[in-house]
Amino acid sequence: MNPELTINGGEINRKRVGPFGPASALLPYNQEPLILNELTPSSDTLELMIDNRYSQIPVKNDEGTITGVFTWQSFGKRVADLQAIKIKPTDLPIRDAMEPANFIDPDVYIDTETDWGNLDYVLVGTADDLIGILCISDVLGRLNDFAEAFVLLYELEHEIRDLIRDVYNDNELSDVLESLTESVNRDAIEIEKDLRKLIEEGQKNKAIGKAIKVLRKYKRENSRNHHECPVGH
């Protein structure tokens, strides 16, 4: 998969795998979704769901096209509808107790195409080519995986800050930071000394004077930026 980000007409087309997709990358590894024929009795389907801890099962017709999804919620609604009729809900074929299927393209990023406030799952693929079932638990698990690295970085940063405060007092820390700044600017300092020596030897010219001013400005800016970002804030 291409890891690059491209911007077309102001819209960002994301290619890199992230916590929001693409949808195909969020599916559980080696998932093989179970699909039942629409004439399967509800009683048999409920047993399968209990035994396998499924929350939903896609339903297909005789041509193999997905026509809906049998879920605990869709079956419960059907049971409520049949309260006044002497029909056992478990005797119904699942096509009479299913809900419409919601599909998303495998390359879609779910934060732009789905509203998880109203969904527990989506079918990844098409009615004739189902790749997998993406549940809210899968999404939350992936978000946790990505967030964990940032949480660890946050904890490491604060541990390092605490360690620095334990090792150095304020005055010592100031000296250490100044030493680090000088180390970073070592090349600029040495160049300035060489140029000053040239001036003292009578080889002064405008170009050398300008160079020294630039180097001094560079040193001041680095020193100012460094002191504006003290450790511990």
User: How is the main sheet built?
Assistant: 3 strands, mixed
Q: Output the number of helix runs.
A: 8
Mean pLDDT across every amino acid position: 78
Radius of gyration: 33 Å
Query: Could you estimate the helical fraction of the residues in percent?
Result: 40-55%
Overall form: elongated
Q: What string, H for helix and E for strand, traces the elements in order?
A: EEHEHEEHEHEEHHHH
Note poorly predicted spans: 1-12, 226-233
Determine the structural class based on helices, strands and strand pairing.
alpha/beta
Kindly report how far apart the N and C termini lie.
40 Å
Number of strands: 8
How much strand content do the residues show? Answer: 5-15%
As laid out across the biggest beta sheet, the strand order is 3-4-5
Short summary of the structure?
The protein has 233 residues and is an alpha/beta fold. The protein is 48% helix and 15% strand. The chain has helices spanning 23-26, 42-52, 72-81, 110-113, 136-167, 170-184, 186-200, 206-227; strands at residues 6-8, 11-13, 36-37, 56-60, 66-71, 103-104, 121-126, 129-135.
